[in-house]
TrEMBL record:
GO cellular component terms listed in the entry, alphabetical order: mitochondrial inner membrane
GO biological process, one term: 'de novo' UMP biosynthetic process
Protein name as annotated: Dihydroorotate dehydrogenase (quinone), mitochondrial
Protein origin, superkingdom: Eukaryota
Molecular function terms from GO: dihydroorotate dehydrogenase (quinone) activity
InterPro entries the UniProt entry points to: Aldolase_TIM (IPR013785), DHO_dehydrogenase (IPR050074), Dihydroorotate_DH_2 (IPR005719), Dihydroorotate_DH_cat (IPR005720), Dihydroorotate_DH_CS (IPR001295)
Cofactor(s) the record lists: FMN
Localization per record: Mitochondrion inner membrane
Species name: Daphnia pulex
EC number: 1.3.5.2
Pathway(s) where this gene product acts: Pyrimidine metabolism; UMP biosynthesis via de novo pathway; orotate from (S)-dihydroorotate (quinone route): step 1/1
Amino acid sequence: MTPKKQLTALVTVTLGGTATFASLCIWNGNESFFSDYVMPFTRRLDPETSHKLAVFAMKHCLIKKQVKPDPESIATRLWGMHFSNPIGLAAGFDKQAEAMQGLHRTGFGFVEIGSVTPEPQDGNKKPRVFRLDEDKAIINRYGFNSEGHEAVYSRVKMEGEKQERAVIGVNLGKNKLSAMEDVGDYVDGVKKFGAIADYLVINVSSPNTAGLRRLQQKNELENLISCVLEARNNLGVTKLPPLLLKIAPDLNEEERKDIANVILKEHCRVDGIIVCNTTTSRPSDLKSEFKDQTGGLSGQPLKDISTRCIGDFYRLTGGQIPIIGVGGVATGQDAFEKILAGASLVQLYTSFAFQGPPIVRRIKRELDEILRSKGYKNISEAIGKSALSS
């Protein structure tokens, strides 16, 4: 073999070996490899391109399925459903319901897809998502980019028919051309997905659709919920899907009281609330050059705001309405604090975008260790403990 051929063979073997090693590390969800190589690479990409790449990876199940069962300490039962663990993926990642199986394999206890609008719409103009690396945060102004009910319905239905799948929630949004006071988009969503979703979410808290948050005001909210509940109750299915309301963090004390009073009324009694969506506020200590971009801020800066909001709603509702806590969860301790504040389940989004699939297993492991160290046999024993003592 000539020296040139020897060199070619050496390079081929080296590159092949490197590619094989990298593929195995990704397949196995190696935390160090993701931290040192995969995530730094994705941060070199445009944030929306990085998002699409992550969805592609999950869609094609490029991560090995978690085989080890979740600890009993973090298993829970809610709305008549078993959750192997309380860690879910928030809406906004898998907007078009393309990657549910891959996300389930990653270890999430439940996956919320959407937001889904009745008619397809492109959302806001690009660029519309910004990564604030120094702040471990994201600002997005996607604006409910959705392929519409029909396209998403077929995927959710197909996933729901699989023997092994995640608990699936469908987050419902409004088309931007629909009149804000018209509740029809949400009613249509309930009718479309009510028979196939494990739970439904009424999203009136996105800051990226003009006027949407006005639906959180007392009178508008009461009308919306009563209409949507009527549609849900008349679905004619054996098991009615739980109906949840997703709220904003940017509510004053009076607005929070109004919402709590509405959802405690018999004809407006939702099955749960998701606390909370992204914030339009900007903490003064943000460092990133993108800090002043318009849109909703998520991630680390939202953590304490969200936890306080969870505690407020747990107290205002007397713990009668289950809460899914979301906002700045990146560790088992973060999840535990949300549970202590009153959350029955917890969701991730930004930390998943920053740290990749290994974060799911790590948070579950850390949460189990914390529960045992605090003397809790199950997460259900810890729900609302700090809210009740404050």
